[in-house]
Each structure stands twice: as C-alpha cells, then as structure tokens.
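== Polypeptide entry ==
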Amino acid sequence: MDDIWLAPIGEPLDLAVSAGLPPVPLPDQCHVEQLIWHGDALTGELHAYVAARSANTVTVRIAHGARLVADVRIRRGPVRTARTHTLLRREPETGTALTRLFPVTKDVTTDHVPEADPVLSTPSIIAFMEDTAADILRAAFAPGTASLGTWIGVRHSGPATIGQTVTVTAVLADVRGRRYLFDVHAHVDGREVGDGQVAQTLIGRP
C-alpha cells in the first residue's frame, strides 16, 4: 500500500477502495477529518490519488474514470476531543452511537414527482440523519443550549417506500470545540440506503 504522506500529488495510489467508512485504509495514528461524496455508490473500477496535502492533512480523491466519487481528508494524530465550552452538562465520548427508527410516510416522499412511485426524498433522509446525530448532543445539553446542522456530506444510495422503516445510526467521530462530526448510516430491512457524515454545532440560546 502506498504511503499517502509521500505519494506524488495526482499520481494513482495503490489503495484498496471499499464501500464502507472510511472508504480507504487509514495509516496508523490518523483519522478521517472530513468526507465529501461527489457521486453514487463505490462500484466499478475505482482509483484513488492524493489531491492535496499539508503538514498534518492529506486529501485522497476517489474517482471512477473521470467522474469524481469522493474526497477523504485524513488528519495525523488522534481524534480531537478537547472541551472549550460549557454548553453541555457532560461531554459525549467519540464513538458514542445512537440508533433511531423513522417510518416512511407520504409527507417525507417524492410524491410530488409526476408519474413516479413515491420514495423517501433525499432532504428527508438527511433530516433523519441530522436529527439522530443531534439527539446524541441533546441528552447532554446545558440549560439554554441548542445545536444546528452546519455541514452535510451524505450519499443517498437506495430507495425506501411508504410503509417501510428507515433505521438510522449516528456515531460521534470527531470534536472540534463546539463542532461535532458524526458518521451516519441509514438502512431499510438490512439494506443500506444512505451514509456519510453530518456536523452539528452548539449554540447558546438567549
């Protein structure tokens, strides 16, 4: 496997690309700082290369031919969990996970599209993921604290129809001050229909 810290920028990497999170293997003492999906499922003949590098971060780009699929920004060192605020009664640890179930009803589908079967809309699956992530923080809110969704990197990869139930899991992946980054997955009957990352930022309400 190529060393991403030494590989020339733009040159193909000898890396095994997978459909999971993270989509590329991580070097020791590193973690994914940000994941951005540009395309659909990681299928077909994929290749990866270093798109950008700084002293402590490297962005690995995954592509299918000329089509971008994802950018994975990797940072040296452990996940940061330093507490710099008093907006929570207790600080959730990285790795904290929560799973919620969401029924697919007419109001969360694309029933407004003419001559198409109604399926779960992309804005709705994102809302499910954000709400699940926010629930990890809500359990620890101090009085007057709220959180806002401030970043989305989500791939909607499969359908869900009215009457089905979407199982959404959020896992706290990284903390930077008031900003909390979560890995998120959505499944229907054991089949993945979406994944990616969302971020929540804490705010103090007057």
Observations:
- DSSP finds one helix and nine strands in the chain.
- The chain has a mean pLDDT of 86.
- The longest helix spans residues 122-138.
